[in-house]
Amino acid sequence: xxxxxxxxLHGLPGSIFYARSKEQGGDDTAFSIxxxxxxxxxxxxxxxxxxxxxxxxxxxxxLQDFICRHKLPVKSNCFDKTDGLKHGLYLQAFCYGLDSxxxxxxxxxxxxxxxxxxxxxxxxxxxxxxxxxYYQLFPALQATVKNIICQKGHGCCILxxxxxxxxxxxxxxxxxxxxxxxxxxxxxxxxxxxxVLHGILMDELEEFFVQxxxxxxxxxTQRLMPSESSDDQCVISxxxxxxxxxxxxxxxxxxRIAEKILFIGESVQMFSREKKQKNGTLKTVFKTQEDGFAVxxxxxxxxxxxxxxxxxxxxxKIRSCIAEHLWKLVMEEADLLAHLQLVKNLYLLxxxxxxxxxxxxxxxxxxxxxxxxxxxxVNITFQLTVRNIVTGDDSFLDTFHLTVPASINKxxxxxxxxxxxxxxxxxxxxxxxxxxxxxTERVLEKYKYTLxxx
Length: 454
Hints:
It is built from 16 helices and seven strands. 27% of the residues are buried. 55% of the residues lie in helices and 6% in strands.
């Protein structure tokens, strides 16, 4: 009988210990293992004790079935037919961590088998004593699995569920939940490392809290600020290429650190892409510091306990390196102050005498409705005005040009009258790399019609 008991503790029913399925009145698990009633050689007290032990076998079988369904890698965007969970790296890591926690239980059963071989007369209470701690651990593990299934946990959201369960007064529950969490954190650290050091987004299944931004079709949302979004769960990067999914961010992971990670990765990707276009080779922006940062991130991955202070320290170091490199590019190589002076002179009418002469010279062209050739004629007039008024400095002509778009619908205004060229006059600014991270399309959109009062 003791060998059948060991099999039942492994979740395998037999002739003495049978499985009661849902149809037979079981609970919400696949089945529950119980002792066959009416056996003459078992005392009612022994039956109650064995039923209590069989609960461990039921919980173990439930966890083992979950691991078998999700541990192996599958095709992307695939859902499990049993529980409806979307497969992914974090779910797979959770199963690996859960399986490693169950190893201690398997070893205990192996030791019990050796004890029974050495002494066949061991009482049931010996088994209860050896496996007593698992009456605390297995219900917590099963509750964690059910929470993941109920909440359709995917990606970094699984980390939040495990972290909540790790806050427990039971030492065995707390210790093993942290073991599982460490395995799942290794996936997040690898994604963070690839993103902040190489600008590579390793996230085919959309599990990471940094994702590519998909611009909405509605043009009204294009005029939002970079940090705004029509969806409260997203923070769009300044360049607008990537977004921070706050709903995928673990609750114990501060938003300020996630924003730094978003900034670092996008900057590294921008620098690497530009260098590859210019030199034909891909070089790192960190130079000799990359190996040191990789070692520090690996050390964080190997820590048993997740420490957000250590994470912020490493991320802040990487951000400082990126910010220093970015400052040299923008301030020294791109000469940001000179570009700001140009913006002030034109968009903010810092050179008022230039526009005064331009109005007099271009008035006869812009009083009438614009034609397809109006924009060309107006730009010729603007260039002549710049050369006459701003002697010795024609940098205006390299970065700015006027726009007078023509329209098929006769350019009728709100009152029904035909609009003149003055109503359509705009000023376009050609932004060079790397100033495009400051003068984004959303920013330039606000300056587009600053000449309208003219």
